[in-house]
């Protein structure tokens, strides 16, 4: 958990530098980090599914690229 705190603190500092005239809600950095984690988990699961469908034992770059197209469509809404 300590590493997650460090990541979210760094993210909050970066956001404050990018948008100095904006005020961030209390948990904005945590919500962005959780969305990132959810996206990465979905990407990995989709890449695993594609690799399994192609009877591959390992996930290749092509599997991740195909998975990225699918997952990005889901996350765009």
UniProtKB/TrEMBL annotation:
InterPro entries referenced in this protein's UniProt entry, alphabetically: CENP-W, CENP-W/WIP1, Histone-fold
Gene3D superfamilies cross-referenced by the UniProt entry: Histone, subunit A
Primary localization class, coarse: nucleus
GO molecular-function terms, A-Z: DNA binding; protein heterodimerization activity
Location relative to the cell: Chromosome, Centromere, Kinetochore; Nucleus
GO BP, sorted A to Z: chromosome segregation; kinetochore assembly; mitotic cell cycle
The entry's keywords: Centromere, Chromosome, Kinetochore, Nucleus
GO CC annotation terms, alphabetical: kinetochore; nucleoplasm
Protein family (similarity comment): Belongs to the CENP-W/WIP1 family.
Name the record gives this protein: Transcription factor CBF/NF-Y/archaeal histone domain-containing protein
Species, as recorded: Syncephalastrum racemosum
